[in-house]
């Protein structure tokens, strides 16, 4: 079951991308990058009503024949995108939301590391382990 996750600051360049399996990785990169435009559209459409919220779960951004694309934005405008196989009917909306919360908490731990420069690619064993366990849960 393919899953791809990206963390992106407001400039929309990837900080972390992970795909399983890796044979269609380029297709996932394309899907994730095109979904960032949908994230921006949803944020601008919602306007200032969501400024007060601490987190912004965008839900299903768009479905394709093969995949479902979900989005999440933090209060600092870091975007998380998750691509899940559309045949996976076991995942419910609240499970996707909790997966994004785990991802957000792990990202916050990385940002609190004094040796991490914000904007650099994420190279963290703890973050990798969390993403791997999340992907195994989905598969």
TrEMBL record:
Keywords (A to Z) from UniProt: Cytoplasm, Endoplasmic reticulum, ER-Golgi transport, Golgi apparatus, Transport
First-listed, main subcellular location of the protein, grouped into a coarse class: cytoplasm
Subcellular location: Cytoplasm, Perinuclear region; Endoplasmic reticulum; Golgi apparatus
A GO CC annotation given for this chain: endoplasmic reticulum
Keyword Transport: yes
Keyword Endoplasmic reticulum: yes
GO biological process: endoplasmic reticulum to Golgi vesicle-mediated transport
CDD domains xrefs: TRAPPC2L
Coiled coil segments of this chain: none
Family: Belongs to the TRAPP small subunits family. Sedlin subfamily.
PANTHER family found in the cross-reference section: TRAFFICKING PROTEIN PARTICLE COMPLEX SUBUNIT 2
UniProt name for this protein: Trafficking protein particle complex subunit 2-like protein
Lineage: Eukaryota, Metazoa, Chordata, Craniata, Vertebrata
Gene name for this UniProt entry: Trappc2l
